[in-house]
Design a protein that fits this description.
seven-stranded mixed sheet, Rossmann fold, alpha/beta, single chain, 7 helices, four-stranded antiparallel sheet
Amino acid sequence: MSQDTNNGVILETVDLMKVYGEGDAEVRALDGVSIQVKEGEFVAIMGPSGSGKSTIMNILGCLDRPTSGQFFLAHEDVSEMNKTQLAHVRNERIGFVFQSYNLLPRLNALDNVILPLIYDPNNEETNAEHHQRGLAALDKVGLGDRAHHKPSEMSGGQQQRMAIARALINNPVMILADEPTGNLDTKSGDDIMNLLHVLNEQGSTIVMVTHDPETVTRTRRIIHLRDGKVERIHHNGHSNEQKGDQA
């Protein structure tokens, strides 16, 4: 691994490549992307359509593997893992927050939140312990009194809070948020960004993929992608932009 394991880096990609097609039809969705995210950071990845946002999200979320290059998560190289190993990393180390919430409509909030625990073959806790952890996660996002309500009985903002509680349930090393406010009105979107900001202040590492310039103002750092490359990195609260610096 290229970084010092004591410098706080929780996520690193090294010369990440993702190539689709061959010959004249070859498309480099990612073209040598090297980035780092430190523990406790709130980082946004943004760029125009075709910039590589969705591709890098799928790789960082262990939903896909790069064509070449390396991806380290919590100091472990996951870029060469098989599907079973990737599924294990997804369930235990990454908390997902999707634009469309991805909740099961027939389950109430508590049962939706504890799903990752149920699907974890290494989890030996009892159902009562699952419920206790689920209720604590719902309390953390302000839904402690809605544990037995189904998604259809909640607003979009409440459903996204439920999804965030689910993302927190396994104490992941990273929360990966894909357009978390994309389906919400302005007020609900602001509420979700406020919640993510609070979670980050409490120590959660968050990587958010978005095209919305308004939401990224709440992050600490913005990684701009264009044509599969890192175009520039902007540090919020600082006047300087680091062009060509992918650290």
